[in-house]
Amino acid sequence: MNAEEICKKAGELVGGDRAKTHGDKFENHLNIARLWSAYLGCAITPEQVALMMGLLKIARTKTGTYNPDDFIDLVGYASIAGDIAARGQSVTYVQWVPHEKAMTHDERMARVADDCHHAYHAELQEITRTGGREK
């Protein structure tokens, strides 16, 4: 398939078959964003969902054989991300996380860094305590 054929097929799927199967693009990606946000404990937007699905399609091109569907779907997801952004619907989704304050991506990364910092110091303390010998 050439570039024009890939774009045409992606447009047909996004506006036709996939729309009939999966419903409204924004609502579908909002539902995915809510689930991913709750699972990850950080805010994910519908636009980010579409971009990450595109990354999944890119990852698939690195293994196996040529599959035109990977490229068609990549264009489709990119167009959905652009559509959501153009509509101004790329605002950060505030998610619900049970028993824990919802975190933005930056807050989550800071928490991971802090956890790593504490683990590193705990390991250093153990090395100091044991003189570097096995436990």
Report on this structure.
The protein has 2 domains: 3-103, no CATH class; 104-135. With 135 residues, it is mainly alpha-helical. It has helices spanning 3-22, 25-40, 46-60, 68-86, 105-130. Helices cover 71% and strands 0% of the residues. The chain is built from 5 helices and no strands.
What tags apply to this protein structure?
5 helices, 135 residues, elongated, mainly alpha
Distance between the termini: 60 Å
Q: What order do the helices and strands follow?
A: HHHHH
The number of helical elements comes to 5
Q: Any low-confidence stretches, pLDDT <50, length ≥5?
A: 93-97
Q: Domains counted in the coordinates: how many? A: 2
* Helix content, binned percent: over 70%
Question: What class would the helix/strand composition place it in?
Answer: mainly alpha
Major sheet size, sense and barrel closure: none
Can you tell me the overall shape?
elongated
Fold topology:
Elements: H1 3-22, H2 25-40, H3 46-60, H4 68-86, H5 105-130
Helix pairs in contact: 1-4, 2-3, 3-4
In summary, what is this structure?
This protein is 71% helix and 0% strand.
